[in-house]
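Translate sequence into structure tokens.
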Amino acid sequence: SRSTAFPPPQPSPVNGGGGLLDTPQLLLQEPLLQNASAALVGLSGGLDSSVLLHLLFRLRELGWSVPLSALHVQHGLQAEAESWLEHCRQKCAALDIPFAYEHAQLGAARLSSEDAARQARYAAFARHLPLGGVLLQAHHQQDQVETVLFRLLRGSGVRGLGGMPRERRFASGWLLRPLLDLPRAELERYACEHQLCWVEDPSNAQGHYSRNFLRQHILPSLREHWPALDKQLLTSAARGAEAAFLLDELAAADLESAQGPHPSTVKLEALRTLSVARRNNLVRFWCRQRHGAAAPEPGAALLERLQTELLDAKPSATPVLRWGEGAAELTLRRHGVHVYLVPRLPLLPLCLELVVGEVLELPAPLGRLCWREGGEGGLALRQGERLQLRFRQGGERIKLAGRPSRELKKLLWELGIAPWLRDYVPLIYRNEQLLAAAGFAQDEAVLSKSQQNTLQLVWERPDLHCGA
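Result follows.
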């Protein structure tokens, strides 16, 4: 199917100063809120999220029927964190809104505390968002201004300079920022009119955090010299978002032409024929298409190595370009006439039990093993029989029907299985006898002579392509 790009942001149907805050039913013009299976508010307890929560409460009172809940993510970085949690709990109880919380674990030592907290927060939101649900966040106009300037200083491209999107795909649903067009002063006015109470994070006054430094020291001076700064930065952000959309349209067309036999592959020669800029644009777009908007993006230094280390490598070479951290790591690899985009492969267990007739979930992203009844090449196994699943250690042999016994390693090579994936093919054993390499070969000793009462072992691997 053709790869597609998301459209650039359009003016909000609820834009217009305090109109949204004074008339919350304008939110019902949002298709995402009309069609969502559920709505989840990211509730910090601060001014912005408190206003958003109250606004949605009023919308519910007006007849909006989408199930509404709130999630508070506690990072444990401030002494007052427990009191903030209790504040959010009480606020939701008073409004009769279901409430949940998580204590986030900050990992990734290479990240700043700001980035680590953000990653942990979004991971928690993803876990709590139901299928088809919408995550609502309370970012406003000044947050967008800070984001654009912050990303400019970090060297972002046009996608980053487009700022935060008002809506985007997220986890199993969507993310929506309905207040993004409103100035913070409007939120303060609303909070005062409705006598809302909120918490203040003391870390917002700590200038050693990059965003706080911008907010407290840089932006006030810039606004004093350029009174229209916010408007101009928001205009630039809109233009950046439009340029990013056009780049995505170009990348989608290039990817359609370059696509290999599976979405995780592209043709080597197609990459070679593109200009460097178009090739880099395609690779970044490909990463987002396969692994989501939050996928780690290959940096400029890595993309410079793409030509010399991967495209120009000898045919017999097995080059690898690697980026990202932990479970989010991605790699570009070459095999035959294709380039593969491969997620991080897991550490393999020594042995798993496989019960004939029962589905076995494999470590991500290896998919799962399942069974189908009947058909040619079925296995003569008993329902409920207990087998063992192992992975290659070296020296395995298998005897195909009507052929001599042979090394499994050579067989996988002849089948075109990419070298880095050969060790991940599930091997099915009965005690010490190798019965099958799931999805590729069965030993003749276990093949059924009849198509009646037989079982087919199927390896479903939606995120893993094995062949060349």
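Note: The CA atoms of residues 69 and 98 lie 5 Å apart.
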